[in-house]
Amino acid sequence: MQFDSESLRNAQLFIYPSVGSNLKNINTHNSVCNLLLAEVFEIQIYRTTGL
Prior knowledge:
Elements: H1 5-15, H2 23-49
């Protein structure tokens, strides 16, 4: 599985729901989503390189 721009866009559409009005909740949500994305990338990098 490769992370091309299209799959990343789809992941963002899936992970980031429509914007609500509470900025604090949005920021918390984005932080959590960024952590999840980072974890997915780390797993992918590990599988690809063995590092």
